[in-house]
Amino acid sequence: MISVYDIDGLARWASAHGVDEPTLKRFRVAFFKKALAEDDCLAMLPPSVRAAFQAAVALPSLDLVARQDSSRDGATKLSLRTADGHRVEAVILRVASGRTSLCISSQVGCAANCQFCATAKLGLARNLTTDEILAQVSLAQRLLRAEARTLRNIVFMGMGEPLHNEKNLYAALDTLRNPRAFYFADRHLMVSTVGMVAAMGRFRERFPTVNLALSLHSARQEVRRDLMPAAKSQTLEKLRAVFPPQGSPSPLMIEYVLLQGVNDGPDDLTALIDYLRGAEVHINLIPFNPHPGAAFTPVGKAEREAFAHALRRAGYKVTLRRSLGDDIAAACGQLAGVHARSGN
Ligand code: SAH
């Protein structure tokens, strides 16, 4: 079967079956842009080829098993089931009117084992396929269409380490960016990584203007190594070598989760200021989202603001993020509500 996300394959099928480009385009617009229901997309094709199309072209999907809407803000957590019974999660973030973002997963579980992250507790079951990554987007688009909203941003900040699943990630990005498919602008796409140095280089080469975020969390090697096992081999020194130099058109986003007594002290601040000097970065300070079993304490609002202020004084661009969806465990690092391969 051809996947609907395989745009070239779709075009080959169409020309072999006498479907002209304007007709195929009407189908693609219905599926990718208007996010119409399956039958309504199919209705864009001539009746004579519909059965053959259905036999040849798969519209991959994930089962929506549960949906939790935050009572406090505009977040919705979607619990999704793969065909082989694994569970993954995606989160819709309605930040401001019209500006809707979707946080998607790249793996079932994760192998990175970051000490503060809930997904880490699951371990890694498997990579998501390209179809499974993109099916999260199609599904969210359809839910949002019912609210007359459009999806603006896609961030790979759900379950999994995207750069541990490079091949499928890159194929998914190709389709997300493709003018004949989803056609998201590069500035509306973001991939977040624990910091796989070689893969970050490949990513930048292939997608120079897609946003890349590095989960730094400490600029002190021994602290970072204790928080994130990946840092043992992917050292701060090696990472620093792949940072964009000041003045580069695409800044590296730096994610920094503030953990009380771990990475929020004066030495941590100084180390961070020194480490990032001369690089084109934008720092996101993230509040720690507590979850059962997490042995860390969030840093208070006033202290987070002081940390941000000091970084700004040192000349850095800083965003102090607030946490969306924490009442439904949909915030960063809280995606572990269900176990991989649960039956229901
Ligand atoms: N594996 C990728 C993407 C998934 S996590 C990565 O690590 O970047 C997305 C972001 O949430 C990362 O910056 C991660 O470090 C952060 N995060 C994980 N657990 C968190 C928690 N409990 N509170 C706040 N942020 C957390």
Write the layout of secondary structure elements.
Elements (H helix, E strand, L loop, with lengths): L1 E2 L3 H10 L4 H13 L4 H5 L4 H10 E2 L4 E7 L5 E7 L5 E10 L2 E5 L3 E3 L14 E4 L2 H16 L5 E6 L9 H12 L11 E5 L3 H10 L4 E5 L5 H7 L8 H5 L11 E7 L7 H11 L4 E7 L13 H13 L3 E4 L24
Parallel strand pairs: 1-2, 6-9, 9-10, 10-11, 11-12, 12-13, 13-14
Antiparallel strand pairs: 3-4, 4-5, 5-6, 7-8
S-adenosyl-L-homocysteine binds next to strand 10 and strand 12.
Mind explaining what this structure looks like?
- The radius of gyration is 21 Å and the shape is elongated.
- The strands form three sheets. It has a ten-stranded mixed sheet with strand order 3-4-5-6-9-10-11-12-13-14, covered by helices on one side.
- Strand 10 (189-193), helix 7 (197-206) and strand 11 (211-215) form a beta-alpha-beta unit.
- It is built from eleven helices and 14 strands.
- Helix 5 (130-145) runs parallel beside helix 6 (166-177).
- The protein is an alpha/beta fold.
- S-adenosyl-L-homocysteine binds next to strand 10 and strand 12.
- The site of S-adenosyl-L-homocysteine (SAH) has 19 residues, from strand 10 and strand 12.
